[in-house]
């Protein structure tokens, strides 16, 4: 019997691994004395059927008020064709899942202000951003659903710990790791910044700028806002922007359009920190800010993704002339 532990309930990312276990060795039943080449026979669609049962179980649990309100992990087991899946789950409110939490350890990179990281590394763009982008472009740009499909949580946490401790073999880890885990690590880095990459200070202006109806006024406003970003933020945002454009160029293969990428990254790059949310009297929780502004956050990033290439030098030169 094969046991597969699933702690992050990331069903799609482990389905393929499960299918690899859904095999039996036919040699067990071959009584011939002649040497035989091992033949593996797959139970038809066992993995898909089994995960269908798991998904149904999760949906039933999600609709159970007692389960949703409980803060404890709920353990369950589902078996089929000799395959045993053990998984644990608990439900976290949106307020907690969206919260930006500054790190207490300023020696790492996750949860640490971007200017602190770039100053320590003596770099223009954080090392984690450069390496994750490079790896995705090397072997993930053709991956269907890149940045949309989640990586395995344990892999992402392993990469997070490696970057936080500046592990020497990080490059080896990256080359061996599933590409969706690397994409997930990059998203997690931006999501855990103490304040969004496009900053709390400029957030209201981004919301106002994207709502402008006059194209010329919108262009002037949106470019002025980029020029107003701190240099580490802007120098990180621009290469990320060009990277996402290159990913979208492969849309016929990876199915990730500019709009899909804006939907994934917009809230991650713009969602305000908790302190800013608390200042807004008409917004009382992270879930409110999510429902209130998420579409505008997506539209802000989509605007820049659809824009012609933006040069840091040209932006700063325009600032000098104004």
TrEMBL record:
Molecular-function GO terms, alphabetical: GTPase activator activity
One of the GO biological process terms: signal transduction
InterPro entries xref list: Abr/Bcr, Rho_GTPase_activation_prot, RhoGAP_dom
Residue ranges the record marks as coiled coil: none
SMART domains: RhoGAP
All copies of domain Rho-GAP, residue ranges: 112-312
Annotated GO CC locations: membrane
Record PANTHER family: ACTIVE BREAKPOINT CLUSTER REGION-RELATED PROTEIN, BREAKPOINT CLUSTER REGION PROTEIN BCR
Name this protein carries in UniProt: Rho-GAP domain-containing protein
Species: Eleginops maclovinus
């Amino acid at each position: 019997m094969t046991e597969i532990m699933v702690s992050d309930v990331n069903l799609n990312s482990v389905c393929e691994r499960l299918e690899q276990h859904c095999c039996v060795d036919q040699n067990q039943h071959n009584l011939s004395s002649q040497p035989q080449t091992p033949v593996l026979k797959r139970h038809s669609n066992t993995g898909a059927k089994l995960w269908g049962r798991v998904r149904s179980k999760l949906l039933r649990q999600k609709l159970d008020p007692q389960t949703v309100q409980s803060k404890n992990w709920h353990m369950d087991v589902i078996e089929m064709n000799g395959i045993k899946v053990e998984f644990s789950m608990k439900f976290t409110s949106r307020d907690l899942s969206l919260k930006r939490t500054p790190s207490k350890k300023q020696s790492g990179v996750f949860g640490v202000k971007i200017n602190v990281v770039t100053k320590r590394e003596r770099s223009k763009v954080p090392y984690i951003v450069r390496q994750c982008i490079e790896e995705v472009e090397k072997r993930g740009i053709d991956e269907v659903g890149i940045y949309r499909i989640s990586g395995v949580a344990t892999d992402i946490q392993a990469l997070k710990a490696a970057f936080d401790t500046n592990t020497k073999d990080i490059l080896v880890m990256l080359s061996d790791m599933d590409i969706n885990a690397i994409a997930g690590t990059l998203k997690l880095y931006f999501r855990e910044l103490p304040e969004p990459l496009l900053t709390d200070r400029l957030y209201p202006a981004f919301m106002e700028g994207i709502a402008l109806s006059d194209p010329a006024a919108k262009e002037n406003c949106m470019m002025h806002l980029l020029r107003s970003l701190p240099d580490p933020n802007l120098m990180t945002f621009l290469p990320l922007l060009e990277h996402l454009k290159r990913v979208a160029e492969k849309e016929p293969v990876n199915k990730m359009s500019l709009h899909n990428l804006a939907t994934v990254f917009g809230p991650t790059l713009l969602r305000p920190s908790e302190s800013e949310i608390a200042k807004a009297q008409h917004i009382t929780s992270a879930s409110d800010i999510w429902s209130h502004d998420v579409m505008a956050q997506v539209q802000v990033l989509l605007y820049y993704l659809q824009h012609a290439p933006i040069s840091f030098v040209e932006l700063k030169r325009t600032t000098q002339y104004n």
